[in-house]
Each structure stands twice: as structure tokens, then as C-alpha cells.
Amino acid sequence: MSELSARETKPAEGLGEAKAAGAAVSIATHLQNHLREYGMLLALIVIMGFFQVVTDGTLMRPVNLTNLILQNSYIVIMALGMLLVIVAGHIDLSVGSVAGFVGAVAAVMLVQYDLAPALVVPACLILGIMIGAAQGYWIAYWRIPSFIVTLAGMLVFRGLTLWVLAGQSVGPFPRSFQLLSTGFIPDIFGVGRPNVTAILLGAATAAILVFMAMRNRQRHMRYGTEDEPFAFFVAKNGFIAAAIIFLSYLLATYRGFPNVLITMAVLTVIYTFLTNSTTVGRRVYALGGNEKAAKLSGIRTERLTFLTFANMGMLAALAGLIFAARLNTATPKAGVGFELDVIAAVFIGGASMSGGVGKIVGAVVGAFIMGVMNNGMSILGIGIDYQQVIKGLVLLAAVIFDVYNKNKAA
Amino acid sequence: MEPILEMRGITKSFPGVKALDDVNLKVSHGEIHALVGENGAGKSTLMKVLSGVYPHGSYEGEIVFDGRPVAFSGISDSEKIGIIIIHQELALVPLLSIAENIFLGNEIAKGGVIDWSETNARTDRLLRKVGLKESPATRVDTLGVGKQQLVEIAKALSKEVKLLILDEPTAALQENDSAKLLDLLLDFKAQGISSILISHKLNEVSRVADTITVLRDGRTVSTLDCHKEKISEERIIRDMVGRDLAHRYPERTPKIGATLLEVTGWNVWHPLQSDRQMIRDVSLRVAEGEVVGIAGLMGSGRTELAMSLFGHSYGRNISGTVKLRGKEIDVSSVNRAIANGLAYVTEDRKALGLILEENMLRNVTLANLLRVAKNGVIDNAEERQVAERYRKALGVRTPTVFQKVMNLSGGNQQKVVLAKWLFTEPEVLILDEPTRGIDVGAKFEIYGIINELAGQGKGVVMISSEMPELLGMCDRIYVMNEGAIVGELAGIEASQEKIMSMIVRS
User: Taking 80 as the threshold, does the pLDDT of residue A30 lie above it?
Assistant: First the structure.
């Protein structure tokens, strides 16, 4: 159909010329163009730096760093699922209650029925999937707003948690179950401290990331779509690799990598891949961007919404298990308010309330911004009252920053 | 005659683009002044300068209104002195009544308490002026688009309008409503109200306009006085696109083959009102290489027919058979319809056709993702090749395929939608208003693409409200009215009169 393009090519009106200009942009303009992407990462670094200074170095102390990861793992894990839910144009308010409920069920199975963790963990994950599916069913096939369905779920599962635990804490758990959260990757080299395995794992991760970034850049160059200045590319990847190796070293001087860090990292990789490279991921974005157009393009939007919530249920269950394992007890209060931290993390990470926009990496960074602030303020002994106020303001500021950027671009 | 408005040497720049370059516009007292130009020619920008959306100081040049230079800092300033603009997208609140809408932000009230009897009385008078027979208490969402348009105009009249600006007022109207609206403009003219009419429909422009100003690429190309000489549509088009369109519809020698698609006894009921039949016993066929038109007024069931055929996307209790090359096919879901060789380009590309937030590449592959994926993993290189191929083949004007489609012009967006459906490799394409809201040049290109597809032996069903387009493009035309096919004409024997008489007599 080559003869169709009879008219000469001219760029459509109103397009930024800078974007078309290719590799010639300076580092400053590049940063400006990608302000949103790097903004939150920079914010995280600044916040970490700030607390590192005001806590006299306590923040980055290996023990605290390990703690920070353990404390945040369940928020990060739920943020992965919540990102998909929010990108699909929905919300899930029930995740905190579901996490609490699944933790409670696990506790009862482990302690009162004496069942093996190897049985309890998969059973609880399936329970989570079923809970998510039950909520997703009404949202997807009956078109009941997710806000309402999951608000109901939040109440229902909070109540069921109390009922299952009979209002009391249940614990402690067998050692093997606790490993889910408080276990560490053993040092296969037997050195102990520093943990050589952890350092090697960190170095390997850094190497893989750099290798993949280079391959990606090469591919983009081949298509002429690379707009990142080379110096910036080197600096960025060098920094990321150094940061990973440095943090691994810090962790290695304590007890090495917590199991949950591996779980978190693997899940983050899986969900990044899912959202970036698979047809399912692509379709979730299309669904959130324009449900009607997606439907008319042959996408089974109902089923996709349903699956998104089932997935959220599974991750909420996993988070509930990890949280219970960490506390070594299931309490009726477990998971209260988690949904707010998780949703805040996703929005801080740049997702759009109206759906169709958002990144896994953003959600993870958002979760760590919340986590570092929680941790740092606790070290400083700032009261829970001020902590809430500050966290609220940070969420608002992040979204205002987003909207401001968008308006400026338009 | 004394001009009511003179815009002199207006220049407006955006970063990197000069949207308006020394534009002059002179509107005389009591005339209808048409402003025409391709999409992106600068019409809307000029009207935004005039109405104060772009405040004084953000542009160069001067505006003289009613003999006095003016400098607006916002839209309320221009409204105060009688310049009222009615946008293409109506700005009515659907759940409020006509009266509430007309006086929204301008309520007749004492101390914050609305005087309803006065409001309703005044609304009544305004409605009579625009010839709308509705109660002031009628909720706006119960009115059709044509009547809503009239409410907008009544709202403008409530503000003591001196210069009325209508941006594509008839784009969403069917022919008789458009005619009524144009008559109303002529009425206003008789009352001394000047208006600026922005329109793509040149037959309307030549019917009512006293003067025509043509913009192209942000410049005034010509100002034509319709009373001095007879202005032909060809002349206007030439000025708009800067070259002659030898023919408005590109030539094609039809090579019509065997019957491709055959629909028999198609019945569809309304999705909510189960006793309302929307499509009645429709049968039609499309052959290889044939462009088949479906003519009819708005509400005649054309879109409902198309959407119900395409994966039962509209309606309930659907019955009838669809055959492709003589074999019955299953079209009960969008997936199956696509798999069986159907494609449907919707009439509303923004709401139903595109993911505006996503780039061109992602929109093109959306309906056939599996073709660029292996085991559910998308092959980026392959996907990009596909997008580039269609960018070239359809002449989509965008710097890269990674441009968000919301930043493309209407014509280019439409090409992206077409690309999406071509990538599903359909045998039959149903095109619903494929040239709505796009400019003359892009229309011509879309026609070229349609001819090309027919040349490849695909069957094309074309639904359009613009009868000249159907007459210019189609080998055969079905005429629809009230959900049934009331006539069939061969392309050569068809005429607007014949189609209308079929509709009227059915």
C-alpha cells in the first residue's frame, strides 16, 4: 500500500520537537523529560539521606536496614497487586483485612490443628485467591463499584478475623513457618560475617541489571529510539549497581539477605515482566485506559478484571502470612490500615486514579518511601500522631507534583 | 458596512510552533462569517484568542470590537461585551433542567435565592426564539443532540449576544436538524446578530455564509465575498489544502468478485427495553472488492446493526445468520467475530476506538496482540516493525510510533484505528462514519485507503451520514430506516433524492 502516502510527511501540529530530535538532547533536558520517572527515586534517595543524617547513621546500620526490609516487605508485596488493580481502573480497600484474616486462619491451622507449614502456606494462598475472586466476581461480572465491594470486604474480613481468633492472639508458630519472614539465606561459603553469599548475590544482581540495561540500550539504538545521553546512562547504571552492592555489603555484615528480600525481589521482577512484556499486562493497561475500546478490540475485560482481583487476593494472603510469621503470632489487629499504606505507595509511585497509567517499579519505590519515613520517624521517636500527618502530606505532595507536571506538559 | 469585529495581525506562538501567523479577520455587522480550514489550521486557536481563553498579552496583534480596541483577560470579559462561543463539545450539565442550564452561573436570584417563576418565564421566551418546543423543566439528558445544541444557543441569547461563534455546530446533527440550525442563524442575521461559523461541511457554508475566511497553517489564505461572486466548493477546498483535489473521491475501478459476507434475517432487540426491536429482519450481502454503503438518518439503526454483527456488542435476543464465503460463522463475541474475519471501526474513535493515553504502537497491535507475542510474551522488535509498517502504509503523520495518540490530529487518529483493524487481517471491514470530524485532506487519504482495501479483494461496509460521501465511494448502497432496510441502489443510479425518498416513503 505504498502509494497511499501521497502527501509528504510533516509532523502533526503540537508535537514536542525535542522528542523527535533523538540522541542529541543534553542531560538536563533528558532529566526534565523524565522528571516523573526519576523524581520519586531521587525523592527516596533524598529522604534516606535526610534520615541517615538526622538519625546519626542509625538508618543505614545493617540491623536497621534488615529491619526496614522486614517491616516493608508485606507493603511492597501488596503494592505489586494493587498497582495492577489501580491500573485496571479499580481500587481494593480490603487488602489489610484480608491479610489479617489469612494470617489468623494460618495461625489457627498451625497452632490449634497442628498442621504442617508446607500444607498451610499453599492452602492459605488458595484461600486468598478465592477471597479475591469472590470480590472480583461482583466487580467484574455484576459491575458493582470496586470501592463498595472491597469496602464491604474490609468490614467482613475484619470481623471474620476476630471470629476466627476468638478475639485473642494465637501463636507462637513452628520455626519453619517463621522462616517465611525472619529467615536468612545461609552463607554457603561458611564464612559467616560478612556473609559472602549475600555479597555475591548482590554483585550478580547488579551485573545482570547492567547487562540487561546495556542490551536494552543497544536494541533501542538499533531502532533509533534511544534518547538517553550516554553519560547519563553510564552514571545511572553505575549508581544503581554501586547502590545494590553497597546495600548487599551492609546486609552481609549483619545476617545476610532475609528470605523475604528474595521473595520480594523475585515477585518484583515477575510483575515487572508481566506488566511490561506480556499480553496480559498490556491488556490490563488497555482495560484501564479505555474499557470500551478494549472490549471492542476483543479483550475479555470482565475476565481480566476478575483475574486482577484474584491476584490481589493471593498477594494479600502472602503478605498476611509474612506479617504473621514476623510477629510470630496472629492478632485481631493485624493488617489494620495496611490498605492505606499500600494504596498510598502506588499513587506516590505515579499511578493514575483514573486507571491505565502506573509502573511496578514506581509502586515499589513508593512503598519504600513510605517505609523509610515510617522507620526514620520511629527511630527519631516522633509520635504516631505527627507520623500520620507527615505521611499524609507526602502523599498529597507526590500527587500534586504529578498533576503539576502533567499540566505543564499539556 | 461597519465591521463589528476586526482582528489584526494576530500572531500566537506555542513553544516550538507558531500556531497563528499574522492572521486577519474582519466580521461585518449582521453577517454570517464562515471560518474554514483543515484541522490544525488555527481556527480554534484564533477563536480562543478572540474569546479570551488566551489572555491579552499572550499573543501579538490587536482586536477591535464594536469600534473599540479590547483586551480580555478571561472568557468572562468577552462574554460581558457580547461575544459568546459555543464549543463543539456541548457544555451542558445533563442532569439539570433546560432552565437551570441556561442560567447556570448567571442565575436570576435575590440574595442567593433563585426566582423560579422569572427563570422559567425567561427560559420560555428564549426557547421560543430558538424554536425549541420543550418545557423549561425538561432535563437536558432527555433531549437529543440537536435540541441540546438549541439549548446552548438559547443560553447564548440569554447573555445579550452580539457575536455568536459556533464551532462545528452541525458535526453531530442529522440533516434536518442541521438545516433548522442554519435557518436559525439566518434568523439571527435578520435580527442583526453577527455570527462566526466554523464548519467542515462546505455545503452548509456555501448555503448561509456571507463571507468566508480560509485559514491554512496558521495564516489567512483568502477572504471570499459570497455576494460578489459565486464561490464553488472546489475553490474553497483548493484554498484550504493549498492544491487542487482533482476529484473529491479518488478513482477506483471496481473488481467485484464472489459474495463474501451474507447476513440473513438479522433481528436485534434493545438491550434494556426488551419490547423494543432495534433491527428488523435485515439481510445484506457484501462481495469481494465491493464497497457497500449504508445510508440512513441518525437513529435509523445503522450503528446498532454494525455493532450487533460485530460480536453482539449491542443489543439482546439477537437472531439471524451470518455467512462468510457461504459458510455460517459465529459472531457471538468480539473475539470470534475478529477470528472469523470481521473488523469494525467505530464512529466514536475517542470513546470506543483508541486508548488515548497509550502510544500509536500499542493501539495498533491491541486487537491482535497474539500475532506479535509468543507464549504470552510480546516481541518488542516484531511489534515495532508492525507499527512502522502501518505508519508508512497509511501515512500516519507522527514523529515516532511511540507518540501518544491523544497528541495526534483527528485524521491521524483515524488512521491509527484503521491500522489496528487492518492488522487483524479482516475479510470484511465495517467502517462507521470513517471520516467524521476530520479535514478534507485526511478524508481524501482515508478514501484512498478504502479503495486500496477494496482493490485487495476485501469487502467494505461503509456507514455514513454524509450522503455525497456514500454516493462518491460506494458500489452499492442500502438505505436503512427505523431498523429495517428499505431500499437498495446501485452506486451509479443512486442520488440523494432517491435515498431520501426511500426513507420518507418507507
Answer: no
Cell of A206: 547488579
Determine the distance in angstroms separating the CA of A140 from the nearest CA of chain B, rounded to an integer.
17
Alpha carbon B491 to chain centroid, angstroms: 24
Q: Which residue of B has its CA nearest to A276?
A: B378
The answer to whether B360 touches B387, Cβ cutoff 8 Å, is yes
Which three cell numbers mark B129? 426564539
Contact yes or no for A357 and B334 at CB 8 A: no
pLDDT in tens, A304-360: 999 999 999 999 999 999 999 999 999 999 999 899 999 999 999 989 888 999 999
Distance in angstroms (rounded) separating the CA atoms of residues A133 and A306: 6
- Residue A314's CB: how many other CB atoms inside 10 A? 24
Please tell me if residue A13 touches chain B, with a CB cutoff of 8 Å. yes
Asked if B373 has any chain A CB less than 8 Å from its own CB, the reply is yes
| pLDDT at A11 > cutoff 80 | no
Q: How far is A128 from chain B (nearest CA, A)?
A: 25
B83 min Cα distance to partner chain A (Å): 27
pLDDT at A12 over 50: no
Strand B459-463 versus strand B291-295 pairing type: parallel
Query: Measured between alpha carbons, how far is A5 from A310 in angstroms, rounded to an integer?
Result: 47
pLDDT reading at A259 higher than 70: yes
Kindly report the average pLDDT of chain A as a whole number: 88
Q: Taking the CB of residue A126, how many other CB atoms lie within 10 A of it?
A: 13
Partner A contacted by B362 (CB < 8 A): yes
The answer to whether the CB atoms of A293 and B351 lie below 8 A apart is: yes
Gap between the Cα atoms of A139 and A345, Å rounded: 23
- The predicted pLDDT at position B243 comes to 57
pTM metric for this prediction: 0.80
| Residue B396 near residue B419, CB atoms below 8 Å | yes
Pull the grid cell for residue B158: 440569554
Contact A289 B366 (CB under 8 A): no
CB atoms inside a 10 Å sphere around CB A253: 17
- Reported ipTM: the value is 0.83
**Torsions phi, psi of A114, nearest 5?**
60, 35
> CB atoms < 10 A from the CB of A1, how many?
17
The closest alpha carbon to B25, from B156, B170, B215, belongs to: B215
Complete domains list, chain B, with CATH: 5-241 (3.40.50.300), 249-341+426-506 (3.40.50.300), 354-425 (no CATH)
